[in-house]
Design a protein that fits this description.
Helix content: 40-55%
Shape: globular
Strand order of the largest sheet: 3-2-1-4-5
Order of helices and strands: EHEHHEHEHHE
Length: 145
C-alpha cells in the first residue's frame, strides 16, 4: 500500500530544472489515485519599477508574463504522461499563493526544491521554500541538489 494513495500533492514550479525534477519526484511518489497539482506563481512587477521613467515597462507586462506561464505549463504537462497533473497559474507573492492554494486544495504534501541561495542572494531574494515550510498546514518535502 502506498502512503500517497488517494492523496493530493502540490509542486510549486518556477520553471527551473530543480523544480521540474520535483514534479518527477512527486510523480514517483504518487500512485494512480494520487492527484498532483503543479503551481506557477507570477510575481507582479514591483511598484518602484513602474514609476521609474528610465525603466520602460509596458502596462500589460504582468498579464503577458501570466499568459506566457499558462502556455508553458500547457506545453510541459499536456502529454498523456502527466494526465494526473493539474496545473495552476497564479499572480502574487509566491509563498503566500502557494500556501493559499495548498489550503484550498487540502493537499497532503508539498514537494518543492530549494535553490540553496546563501548570503546576499538569500537576503535580497528570500527563500520561498523556507516561508512555505514555516507556513504550511501539511508536510513539506524540500529537495536539495
Amino acid at each position: 500500500m502506498n502512503y500517497f494513495q488517494n492523496k493530493t500533492l502540490l509542486v510549486p514550479l518556477d520553471f527551473s530544472e530543480q523544480a521540474t525534477n520535483a514534479v518527477d519526484v512527486a510523480m514517483e511518489l504518487a500512485d494512480p489515485s494520487t492527484m498532483v497539482h503543479v503551481v506557477h506563481v507570477v510575481e507582479p512587477t514591483p511598484a518602484w519599477m513602474t514609476v521609474d521613467p528610465s525603466v520602460p515597462i509596458p502596462p500589460q507586462f504582468d498579464q503577458q508574463l501570466y499568459e506566457f506561464a499558462v502556455e508553458k505549463l500547457k506545453q510541459m504537462f499536456g502529454s498523456e504522461a502527466y494526465q494526473r497533473v493539474q496545473t495552476h497559474c497564479l499572480m502574487g507573492d509566491p509563498s503566500a499563493e502557494i500556501l493559499n492554494l495548498a489550503k484550498q486544495l487540502s493537499v497532503n504534501m508539498i514537494v518543492m526544491p530549494s535553490h540553496g541561495r546563501k548570503g546576499l542572494n538569500r537576503l535580497f531574494l528570500g527563500s520561498v521554500a523556507e516561508r512555505v515550510l514555516r507556513g504550511a498546514h501539511c508536510p513539506v518535502l524540500i529537495l536539495r541538489e
